[in-house]
Q: What sequence folds into this?
């Protein structure tokens, strides 16, 4: 049976993960990630990775489930940033 603290943990995880979904969707649709800082992405990925290590070590299930999903989403955003930046550079160099 879940106690109130575990429920809060799962709910916060759901909210953190769902907060990245609109950014993923917008980035995919517009293919423009220039407004997203590469430094912010790298720090965020590092922070989530450290949080994941901590949560697995302490068996904090709500935290490592949401951290794993957040890490995947951030890696997807990072990959999209590189792919779409490359495409934008090629479009500038070869406009026709």
A:
């Amino acid at each position: 049976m879940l106690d109130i603290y575990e429920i809060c943990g799962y709910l916060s995880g759901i909210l953190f993960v769902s907060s990245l979904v609109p950014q993923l969707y917008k980035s995919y649709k517009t293919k423009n990630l220039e407004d997203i800082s590469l430094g912010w992405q790298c720090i965020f990925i590092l922070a989530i990775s450290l949080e994941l290590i901590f949560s697995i070590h302490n068996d904090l299930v709500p935290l490592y489930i949401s951290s794993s999903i957040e890490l995947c989403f951030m890696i997807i955003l990072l990959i999209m940033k590189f792919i779409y930046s490359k495409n934008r550079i090629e479009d500038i160099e070869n406009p026709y």
